[in-house]
Design brief:
Length: about 60
Amino acid sequence: MEAAIQGAAPDNNEGQHIRQLLQSQLDIAWQLLEYHLHDLDDDEGLWQPATAGLHVRKQEGGG
């Protein structure tokens, strides 16, 4: 990792390690997202905590 800190390109082995680390972090984040959104229904997903602000709304025709 020292080569990357000094500004040189990481060697192939180090680049592979970084890729695997990022992939594992993405996999964990995706699993957590799926876990927390699994039972989310439309009422919970479309809940608006206030009348003003940016909100997700259903459009006529289901879009």
